[in-house]
């Protein structure tokens, strides 16, 4: 009689994931946590459930150790271990590290983040589904975006965020899986990224983008946070 609850717990644990490797122009890092700050879920693959938690910044377990060099306009991505096994949007943010700060230990608090990419729901003429037809990042083992060519050169934290909506029928049910990479952008431009937002602060627990309805079936979806800055 106890078999079903046990199986459900095992299935839930296997469905979690993490983002431990950076991908630069299609080439993934050989080792985990090379230029990505090790996250608190490095052993459990669990997600962040409180949008008011400081874990919404980088969910980090320890300070960074390495920095990747990447040219503005390049495709940057994250490996999902073992894949993005929950449906929902995947978004990307960047935060400029002050010239006087150590990138390994800098804490990205306050209004420092700007959105540079969003893999959200595919709009259709009918109800949205909870599968790959609606969610392009679902079940993928990597997610990518293009660094805007006009982003100024310098050191940045790049934050990937997968918002899992499978249990988001009520407030607090969404799960955030995230990591922060440390990169130095070269060959950048003179753009002014924005709007700038803070984590925590950019999202509210009641944000419609953190909710999902199986019934009535949703017909539209807007990811939380600011607009994407394209440069």
From TrEMBL:
Its EC number is 1.14.99.56. It is found in: Secreted. It catalyses: [(1->4)-beta-D-glucosyl]n+m + reduced acceptor + O2 = 4-dehydro-beta-D-glucosyl-[(1->4)-beta-D-glucosyl]n-1 + [(1->4)-beta-D-glucosyl]m + acceptor + H2O. Residues 1-15 form the signal peptide. This is lytic cellulose monooxygenase (C4-dehydrogenating). InterPro entries: AA9 (IPR049892), AA9_LPMO (IPR005103). It is an enzyme of class 1 (oxidoreductase). It comes from the Eukaryota. It holds the Pfam family AA9. Keywords: Carbohydrate metabolism, Cellulose degradation, Copper, Disulfide bond, Metal-binding, Monooxygenase, Oxidoreductase, Polysaccharide degradation, Secreted, Signal. Belongs to the polysaccharide monooxygenase AA9 family. GO terms for biological process: cellulose catabolic process. GO terms for cellular component: extracellular region. It comes from Periconia digitata.
């Amino acid at each position: 009689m106890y078999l079903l609850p046990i199986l459900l717990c095992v299935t839930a644990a296997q469905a979690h994931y993490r983002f431990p490797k950076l991908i630069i122009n299609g080439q993934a890092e050989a080792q985990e946590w090379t230029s990505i700050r090790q996250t608190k879920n490095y052993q459990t693959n669990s997600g962040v459930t409180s949008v008011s938690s400081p874990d919404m910044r980088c969910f980090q377990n320890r300070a960074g150790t390495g920095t990747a060099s990447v040219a503005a306009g390049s495709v940057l991505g994250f490996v999902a271990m073992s894949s993005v096994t929950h449906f929902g949007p995947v978004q990307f943010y960047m935060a400029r590290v002050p010239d006087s700060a150590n990138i390994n230990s800098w804490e990205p608090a306050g209004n420092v983040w700007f959105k540079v990419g969003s893999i959200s729901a595919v709009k259709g003429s009918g109800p949205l589904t909870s599968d790959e037809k609606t969610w392009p990042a679902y079940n993928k083992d990597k997610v990518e975006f293009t660094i805007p060519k006009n982003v100024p050169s310098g050191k940045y934290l790049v934050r990937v965020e997968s918002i899992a909506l499978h249990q988001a029928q009520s407030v607090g049910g969404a799960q955030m899986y995230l990591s922060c990479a440390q990169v130095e952008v070269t060959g950048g431009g003179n753009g002014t990224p924005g709007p700038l937002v803070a984590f925590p602060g950019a999202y509210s627990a009641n944000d419609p983008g953190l909710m999902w309805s199986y019934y009535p079936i949703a017909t539209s979806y807007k990811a939380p946070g600011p607009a994407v800055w394209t440069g």
